Amino acid sequence: MLVLLPPSETKAPDGDGAPLDLAALGTPELTPVRERLVRALVDLAADPPAARTALGLSPGQDAELARNAALCTSPTTPAIQRYTGVLYDALAVRTLTRAQRARADRRLAVGSALFGLVRAGDPIPAYRLSAGCTLPGLPPLRALWRRALGPVLAGSGELVVDLRSAAYQSLAPVPGAVTVDVVSVRADGSRTVVSHANKAHKGLVARLLATTTAEPDGVVRVRALLRRAGLHVEHDGGTALTLVLRPS
């Protein structure tokens, strides 16, 4: 099973690993595109006004440009510890047992605008690049990654549970992947999608899938696993699941 997570704009700033070595990352088929994007980001960081425009940043966020400028020299840390925020707080990989962490490292991967796909243990530096960006002189990220990453994901041979946000799913859709939508039920019975709750509960789903000793082989088994954990999950057919948060 492969569980695809969205990245986060916020990244842990620390790290004690060796500088970025693209050849050391998983999925070596993606190396040519990774090389193009890394070079482009490093070069772009030398022109702060252009970089702010391309990356959608303000002058107060120039520390992000400094991270990009140092992509090839700054320390790395495992990808699953590099990304931060609500989803990753709920995932809480640092609290896993050794056996759970080993399963998580095998199953978890992050869809990345810069690296395409990084496995949980892949060593990466802090950086700033979002799915909607277009770098000067390069095609849109969706055009780059669909050609390179799309076939990799489609041919993985694993059950894919795609928890990525829509923007990152669009970089490389996965036909037949299990998806999970999170909705909240208001007191009047109407439903709404709430960003914070969506991210937190997807983090919980990711933790369950990453650490279970079971090996789900389809959407029905994933649904059963989540229900056993006490989650209210609806399944109307196909490969889409809906996680329903009811008012307390």
UniProtKB/TrEMBL annotation:
Any one of the GO CC terms: cytosol
Task: Read off the InterPro entries from this record.
Answer: YaaA (IPR005583)
Species source reads: Geodermatophilus obscurus
Name the UniProt record assigns to this protein? Peroxide stress protein YaaA
Question: Quick one: a GO biological-process term for this protein?
Answer: response to hydroperoxide
